[in-house]
């Protein structure tokens, strides 16, 4: 997020990241400073909130009632309209006072919402060195530029994009009850009814999650073997995807 107001002002960029990789990310960014006068530092005095639209709100890219003076930043979530807004405040601020009519929910409410919409986030959903950008649908979420200059992985990403052949994608999945007491293991292999490998479960909560699946098996009955029992699941294509996706 750009925090400077005018072209003449010193640029300030605020990055949002998985807290578990805060230190490695800082080291990575400092590696590429190369004698530039750039300061890279964490912001422990700030709090991040997700403002999720109510049920049936559809695309949430419009306006939201607010008292913006109390917010450091309030902007539409850049990934997808169904994810509402990102709100950044000073530590201790009450988001209900900034956005009248809102209520403070549980963080699990947020995770269930994004799993339902098939939105990956953090190192569990996107393991470093494992998750490929196009298979993770980042091209649908303003996460990839096909016009900027060189970056690590650009050649493979651009070639795959222009060839238009993506056989696996991250998809939202839902499980049939009953679920194992300890939940579904992350990285568990997903199989078709006939026992063919269809993909792998990435992460989730309760009866919802996200999995990397072969698109050829999208509409088939699927299962995961957990402790000798078959846990059945189904996958779906998110409604916010481009109409030409997964074809």
TrEMBL record:
InterPro entries assigned to the protein according to its UniProt record, in alphabetical order: CAF17_C, TrmE/GcvT-like, YgfZ/GCV_T_CS, YgfZ/GcvT
Protein's UniProt name: CAF17 transferase
GO cellular component assignments: mitochondrial matrix
Keyword tags: Mitochondrion, Transferase, Transit peptide
Pfam families hit by this protein: Beta-barrel_CAF17_C (PF25455)
PANTHER family: TRANSFERASE CAF17, MITOCHONDRIAL-RELATED
Signal peptide segment: none
NCBIfam families, A to Z: ygfZ_signature (TIGR03317)
One of the protein's GO biological processes: iron-sulfur cluster assembly
Ranges where the CAF17 C-terminal domain occurs: 167-243
Subcellular location: Mitochondrion
Single annotated GO MF: transferase activity
Lineage: Eukaryota, Metazoa, Chordata, Craniata, Vertebrata
